[in-house]
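Session log. Operator J.P. requested a structure for one protein chain; no other inputs attached. Running the standard single-chain path with C-alpha cell output.
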Amino acid sequence: MKLLQLLLREVPFEREELLTIIATASRRYKVYQIPKRDGKSVRTIAQPAPEVKLLQRILHAELIEKWPVHEAATAYVADQSIADHARHHVKSKYLLKLDFKNFFPSITAADIRQHAKRNSNLEEDDLDIFVNIVAWRNKLDRSFGLSIGAPSSPAISNSMMFEFDTCISSYCREREVTYSRYADDLAFSTMRKDTLKEVEAEVHRLTSSIQSPKLAINDKKTVNVSKRYRRSLVGLTITPNQKVSLGRERKRDIRAKLYLYGKGYLNGENVAHLRGLLAYAWSIEPEFVLSLANKQGNELFAKLELPFRSLKD
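Structure written below.
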C-alpha cells in the first residue's frame, strides 16, 4: 500500500487537506528554548502541531517501530528504563561516560531518508512524504532533520544508531567491557584497568568513520572514573554495594517537597511536579519511597493520588 493511502485510511482529513499538511509539515512546529543543566546554554525544543504529531504517530506504529534497534539501547525501548542503563554497570570497577554532541539535530533529513529506504522499502515519492512528516526545517540555521520534541524522533534515532551500537558492542565484548546507550549518553564499564582508554579511542574512530548519521563526541562531557570515586550515570548514583540510587541531593529535595506538601505549602504545578518526582523515585529506588510512606503515613500519599503505600498501616 502506498504511504498516502495508508495515512488517508487512518486520519480524519480529506485527500487535498492531507496533502497540504504533508507539504507544510516540516514547518508546522512550535519552537521554544529551555535552559540546560549547565545553566549557561539552552536547548531548542521544536514540537510539531497536533495534526503533524498524529501523522508521526501513525508512521511510528506502521513503519518506524519495525526498524531494528540494538539491545544496547535502553532509552525509548519497552521494558527498559534509565535505571536499567545504570544497572548494567553496577558490578564493574571502572566507568567511562561519553556523550554525543547535538544528537537529534545531527541526524539530517538525508540520513533519515537513507535509513527509511533501507528498512522500509519505500518508493521515492513515499520517501518524500515520510521525511517531510518526521523532519523539522529550522528557520534559523536552515537545517532539516530530527527535532527534540517530535514523538517520532526518539525511535528514529534509536534505530539509526543500530550500526554504531552493533560495532561498538562487538568491540567491547571481545575486551570484557559492558556497553549500554541511553539516547546520546554512552556508558562503558569493566574490571580491567586502562581498557577504557582503548574503548574511548575506538569510539572516536568509529564515530569518524560512520558517515550517516554524522555524529561527534562532546569531549567536555567525557568522564572516566574508578570505583574509588563517586560514580554517577544519567543523574543516578552507582553505590559501592552495587545498587542504583537517586543520590542524596535528589532524596533531600523529594523529602523537602513532601514535607511542604504535608504542611499545605504546595499547590498547582508544584504538586504535579512532586507526583512526578515520587513516581520517578519509585521506578529507581522503591525502598526509598516506602520509607517515606512509613514516616509520613499512607494518608499523604492517598491525598496525592499515588498507589505507594506503607505495609505498616
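Operator note: The longest helix spans residues 269-284.
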